[in-house]
Known about the structure:
By secondary structure, the chain is of the alpha/beta class. It contains six helices and ten strands, in the order H-H-E-E-H-E-H-E-H-E-E-H-E-E-E-E. It has one domain: Rossmann fold. About 25% of the residues lie in helices and about 30% in strands. The chain is globular, with a radius of gyration of 16 Å. The chain starts with a helix and ends with a strand. About 45% of the residues are buried.
Amino acid sequence: MTESGVIRLLMELRGQGVTDMRVQNVFEAIPRDRFVPEDLVDQAWDNVALPIGCGQTISQPIVVALMTQKLALSERMRVLEIGTGSGYQAAILSRLVRRVYTVERHADLLVTAQKRFDALKLHNITTLKADGSRGWPQQAPFDRIIVTAAAARMPEHLLDQLTPDGIMVVPVGEGTWDQKLYCVQRHEDGYDSEAFLDVRFVPLLEGREGRPVER
């Protein structure tokens, strides 16, 4: 981690609307360079998405920050993440809530992410190798859900795993160029949703079972 790189990134995040001080502080505390491939470490603190293998990416920091901010997190919450990837988003969440449950379909990515969590002593993260499109019904309900792959349409079965007044942040769009991030709040009589950012995520795929990864 380079101090100048961290400061530069934090200034960019603030300039692009990241106003929550808890979110800013955790971005300073979690070393993004630990979550990228070794040959890309020199780009770890740039505000760009980077490849991590298996056709996946570690998201652009501003997208991670704005999604995290929209969740309106508190330290007693239980959060479900769909798409562990490098583990960076889960690591950010782990410093802000009581427990993070994260689901990933690619075993190689999940094993590597778990090693990073262990190395950083992030022991409030529980991982599962599974089809993330189904959520994690055995652990539901969740106070918050964050989805890091684009659903073709609003995933109401994931919304059903939220607590009353729970919030989900999810990218939705059938093509790469028409995706938008939505903040969705569950109510007793339905859901309210708001699109707040144009994005490009890998698609949310369906059709693979899973099991918890042993620690």
